[in-house]
Amino acid sequence: MDKDEEVMTGLMELINKWGWVNKQKMETSLKSFKSAEVHYIEYIAKNADSNLTKFADSFYMTRGAVSKIIRKLADKGLVESYQIPDNRKEIYFKLTRQGKAIYRIHEKLHKEFKDRDKTVFEQMNDEQFENIFNFLDKYNRHLDMEIKKLNFDRNRE
Questions:
Q1: Both 116 and 138 in a single domain?
Q2: What letters, b where the CB count within 10 A reaches 16 and e where it falls short, cover 27-53?
Q3: Domain-embedded: residue 8
Q4: What pLDDT digit, counting tens, does each position of 92-121 carry?
Q5: pLDDT digits (tens, 9 = 90+) for 47-65
Q6: Cβ distance 79 to 41 under 8 Å?
Q7: Residues 77 and 140 grouped into a single domain
């Protein structure tokens, strides 16, 4: 196996294990919500003036797909839409009180997972962190270029 294959296999294995280890607690605490719904709630909580375009760009989805999930969240009473007085064209989303409660549960779980896993990160030195950050930055920039190519090709069709 090539080194690049080993890295990618290791990353996938890490992501799969992390998801599996966290799955039961997440499902128990947020049992009536799908993972995508919780991630949308988190996005709205962390990003002021969230709208369909910002969601679509951040989640690499179509505005139509985003709209369906937002509609489900609104039907569950977790999200509501609003407009800014000087921009009546754009529709933005914010969390309701119930949506904020779900967000707090989600954040509490993330803190528990972070506390559980901190022993690994405490063993790392600055150089090791810097190497990981450099890899992530390079790979993200590469994928950004690939995404631009795909969008260009898709728009030409």
A1: no
A2: eeebeebeebbbebbbbbbeeeebbbe
A3: no
A4: 999 999 999 999 999 999 999 999 999 999
A5: 988 998 888 888 888 888 8
A6: yes
A7: no
